[in-house]
Every structure is written in structure tokens, then in C-alpha cells.
Specification:
InterPro entries: Redoxin (IPR013740), TAT_signal (IPR006311), Thioredoxin-like_sf (IPR036249), Thioredoxin_CS (IPR017937), Thioredoxin_domain (IPR013766), Thioredoxin_ResA/DsbE_sf (IPR050553). The structure is a single chain. This protein is of the alpha/beta class and about 190 residues long. The chain is built from four helices and eight strands, in the order H-E-E-E-E-H-E-H-E-E-E-H. It starts with a helix and ends with a helix.
């Protein structure tokens, strides 16, 4: 018969396993270029301390050339995701709703990472009704271009202000309301 302590230990372990999310078990996960558990934390830089964000360009999921350059002057929201990532699937409806709410001031882009085949990623886009383009970045090369607030978890969401500077970052899942509020606040900043 299983004792009460064993049941409590098993319950504690069950709670810890989902917390690992989509992070790696890399011992250097806390390093700037490593991945960490997406705990939902939010970071925002003061306007005067922001650095120029990289202009992303590369192949999209559909194989066509894709670039963030055409979104200059708008707030750019970059969501890092993978079709294999359970928190990404959970977060997708919130992102779709936030994109609708902020469509007048923001342009969304995705960075699909660690999917070695485009088919599962394309199926993810169809299943969740993502309306924005996603870069296909299986090796994470685009992610390494962010020195300010690097996306250290999957999912991560970066917000680039209208002047093209990295302004904010969410590590882990975001909610519709929170993301829409942050985008609206950043959109109202002086250019």
C-alpha cells in the first residue's frame, strides 16, 4: 500500500514536471544565450536604455523571403515558438486575440525554432489560426541576434518599439490582456 508521504512526493513531482516546460536541461540555462524555464516573467527597459533591435530576415515557414523591415514605424511583436511546445499551444489563442486587439498599432511575427521539419510547424499555424508570418529558424540563429532582452525560454515574446528598439520581453506564456496592454503602452510612447 502506498503511504501518504509517497503520495505527497509523487504529487510534488507531478507539479514540477510541467514547470520544466519547453526549456532544455542544459546546466548553463541561466546564461544569457541558454534557455531557461519560461516562468511568465516580464522585463521592460526604460526608453533611454533601449538598444536597436535586429532587423530579422530569412525564410518563412512557406519558404518565401520574410523580413521585419517592412514593419518599421509600428510596434513589432516577435513570438518565439515551436510546434512541439505544450505552453506554445496553450498560449496561441491568447496571441491571436492580442494580435486582433492591437492590429492598428502592431505587427506580429513568429520565430519557429527547433522544428526540424516545416510540416508540424505549418500544421500548428493552421490549427491555431495564426494570422502573422513566422520565420523558420530550426537552429535558433535569429534568436542569437537579440543582445538586449534575449528570448531565453520557449515560448518568449519580444516587443520592439516604433523606433526599432527592443523594449520588453515575456519569458513563457502571455495573456491576451497583458500583451495588448503592454503593446498599447509602448505604441503611445513618443517617437
Amino acid at each position: 500500500m502506498i503511504g501518504r508521504r509517497s503520495l505527497l512526493a509523487a504529487a510534488g513531482l507531478a507539479l514540477l514536471v510541467p514547470a520544466a516546460g519547453c526549456s532544455t536541461s542544459n546546466p548553463s540555462a541561466d546564461a544569457d544565450k541558454g534557455f531557461a524555464v519560461g516562468d511568465g516573467s516580464f522585463s521592460q527597459l526604460e526608453i533611454g536604455k533601449r538598444e536597436k533591435a535586429p532587423t530579422l530576415s530569412g525564410a518563412g515557414l512557406d519558404g518565401r523571403r520574410l523580413s521585419t523591415a517592412g514593419a518599421a514605424g509600428k510596434v513589432i511583436v516577435v513570438n518565439v515558438w515551436g510546434s512541439w511546445c505544450a505552453p506554445c499551444r496553450h498560449e496561441a489563442p491568447a496571441l491571436v486575440a492580442a494580435a486582433k486587439r492591437t492590429s492598428g498599432v502592431a505587427q506580429f511575427f513568429g520565430i519557429n525554432t527547433r522544428d526540424l521539419d516545416r510540416a508540424p510547424a505549418t500544421a500548428f499555424v493552421r490549427a491555431f489560426g495564426l494570422t502573422w508570418p513566422s520565420f523558420y529558424d530550426p537552429d535558433g540563429d535569429l534568436l542569437l541576434r537579440f543582445s538586449d532582452l534575449p528570448p531565453k525560454a520557449i515560448p518568449s515574446t519580444l516587443i520592439i518599439d516604433r523606433r526599432g528598439r527592443t523594449a520588453a520581453r515575456f519569458l513563457g506564456e502571455v495573456s491576451t490582456t497583458t500583451l495588448a496592454q503592454v503593446v498599447a503602452q509602448i505604441a503611445e510612447e513618443p517617437r
